[in-house]
Specification:
Layout lengths: L8 E4 L4 H12 L3 H10 L4 E2 L7 H14 L12 E6 L2 E6 L1 H10 L4 H8 L6 E2 L10 E3 L5 E6 L1 H20 L8 E9 L4 E8 L8 E7 L21 E2 L12 H20 L2 E2 L2 E8 L10 E2 L23 E2 L7 E3 L3 E8 L3 E2 L2 H13 L10 H14 L3
Parallel strand pairs: 1-3, 10-11
Antiparallel strand pairs: 2-5, 3-4, 4-8, 5-6, 6-7, 7-9, 8-9, 10-13, 12-18, 13-17, 14-15, 16-17
Length: about 400
């Protein structure tokens, strides 16, 4: 069953040739040292080059996204679907005005977004430890993350979109991953695929030493680490985190615990579960330590509106003067990348039955399929127990 569409508009897509030329020109100005540095930062990632099984799909995604971001609809309509016809495929842009507003509120220039996702450089693929059958990609600069979705996940996401944007307005420093677009792609005589674009939580990726996907439970939460000499970039899980802590100064820890409460309460209201706290470590260099590296940006994020009834509701904090500041939290020695992702699993009949089955199969052990209230509380408790 396809995602809801109240009356899609169909237009002929603009050619991506001009964009490809501009991007190629920009790439051509890079020096040898820049290219070597770029390659070093992509250890463990694989370019989706000609001959790769996903090359044709990602080329169509790039060409379609280049055209889809050329012009923005003027009417903010959460249910709008714009279909653009290309040679050999069609690309749909779902709820385009809402996502365009979000990108603008984040200070993300459309030309930068377009250049990173359009033709010019291949997408990157990494080996995921997720059990889902989704495909995962990164833009070549690793700033944007793309993931395929099932139709029912798209329906859930779009139904929650108005409340998601409202939450970000109230809490502009939220840990929720920033969703930037939802699209469909249908090849000629093929099945429609859906994918989402979001800011990568793990950006910029250079110097990140460890990456984790945390759900606050035990069952299926261990990943065999890659050998020390391996170039693979693995995202580890809860059981791999044993014996580690998130070391923060007092106010930073208080902010994190409060924001986890606010964000998980919102997800509990949406009746969703099985989301993850992405967490990564990066050792701070000397010039990145101390209060001199922080800026208080009152207009950062989704242009939060202060509520007169709740003067402290926004839970603002000092943001590091760094790219992707909304997902970065600095301690005395380490920089932490933090973000809540995967917000489309609803606690319906299927998940309730799965909960009963896992209760019988895994007595005295914790697993991910529990009620949204238990899930939210448990993840907050995990963060509190692992921070100091």
């Amino acid at each position: 069953m396809a995602a809801p569409s109240p009356g899609p508009r169909e237009v002929l897509a603009l050619s991506p040739e001009a964009g490809h030329k501009a991007t190629t020109s920009r790439s051509g100005r890079r020096g040898l040292l820049w290219r070597l540095r770029d390659k070093q930062l992509r250890l463990g990632l694989f370019e989706i080059s000609p001959g790769h099984e996903l090359h044709r799909l990602t080329c169509m995604m790039q060409a379609g996204l280049w055209a889809a971001t050329q012009g923005l609809p003027t009417e903010e309509d959460f249910s709008e679907v714009l279909t653009q016809v290309h040679e050999g495929f069609e690309l749909g842009t779902l709820a385009g005005p809402a996502f365009a507003w979000l990108r603008h509120s984040l200070g993300l220039a459309e030309e930068d977004y377009q250049a990173a996702l359009g033709p010019g450089s291949p997408y990157l693929q990494f080996l995921s430890t997720s059990k889902s059958k989704a495909s995962f990609f990164l833009s070549h600069d690793q700033r944007f993350f793309l993931k395929t979705l099932r139709p029912r996940e798209v329906r859930v996401l779009l139904s929650h979109l108005p409340r998601y944007l409202q939450h970000l307005r109230r809490h502009p420093h939220s840990l929720l991953a920033r969703l930037l677009g939802v699209h469909s792609l249908r090849m000629t005589r093929g099945k429609k695929k859906y994918f989402i674009i979001m800011q990568s939580v793990f950006y910029p990726a250079g110097r990140i030493s460890e990456r984790y996907d945390i759900k606050g439970c035990q069952v299926s939460r261990w990943v065999e680490p890659a050998p020390e000499s391996s170039p693979l970039v693995l995202v580890l899980k809860d059981l791999n985190f044993q014996g580690k802590t998130i070391n923060l100064a007092g106010p930073q820890r208080s902010w994190l615990l409060r924001q986890m409460e606010l964000d998980t309460a919102f997800l509990r209201e949406l009746n969703v579960l099985d989301y993850s706290l992405l967490l990564a470590f990066q050792h701070l260099q000397e010039d990145e330590r101390g209060p001199g590296s922080l800026l208080f940006r009152t207009a950062r994020s989704v242009q939060g509106v202060q509520s007169p009834d709740e003067p402290g509701a926004q839970n603002r904090r000092l943001l590091p003067d760094a790219p992707n500041a909304l997902h970065i939290l600095d301690g005395p020695e380490q920089r932490y990348f933090l973000g809540l992702v995967d917000l489309t699993t609803v606690y319906g009949l299927r998940k309730r039955l799965e909960h009963l089955w896992k209760t019988l199969r895994y007595p005295h052990r914790t697993f991910s399929t529990v009620s949204p209230a238990v899930y939210a509380r448990r993840l907050c408790q995990w963060v509190e127990a692992h921070t100091e």
